[in-house]
Amino acid sequence: MEPETYYEKFGFQIPNVIFPTGNVVKDGLLYIYYGVTDTAIALATVPLDELVDYILNEPQ
């Protein structure tokens, strides 16, 4: 994960930063809760099988 959107790049306290704070797997979907620029909490989702496939098959 890396900052991409405006609210992830520009914030009140620390700009251009995101930090995962927790995750949940439900029905094959990974929910990643993360803080953005010390001002908010956001949510990203990815199908778990796609993430595992990407990690195992991504060229170094």
How does this structure look, described?
This protein is flat. By secondary structure, the chain is of the alpha+beta class. Strands 1-2-3 form a 3-stranded antiparallel sheet. The protein is 23% helix and 42% strand.
State the main characteristics.
60 residues; alpha+beta; three-stranded antiparallel sheet; 2 helices; 3 strands
TL;DR of this structure?
Helices cover 23% and strands 42% of the residues. The chain is an alpha+beta fold.
Query: Which class do the helix and strand fractions yield?
Result: alpha+beta
Whole-number average pLDDT? 90
Strand order of the largest sheet: 1-2-3
Q: How many helices in DSSP terms?
A: 2
Ranges where pLDDT stays below 50 over 5 or more residues in a row are none
Could you give the distance between the termini? 17 Å
Question: Which term fits the overall shape?
Answer: flat
What's the total count of β strands? 3
Major pleated sheet: 3 strands, antiparallel
What is the string of SSEs from the N terminus onward? HEEEH
The share of residues in extended strands comes to: 35-45%
- The percent of residues in helical segments reads 10-25%
Oligomeric assembly = single chain
- Rg, Å, rounded: 13 Å
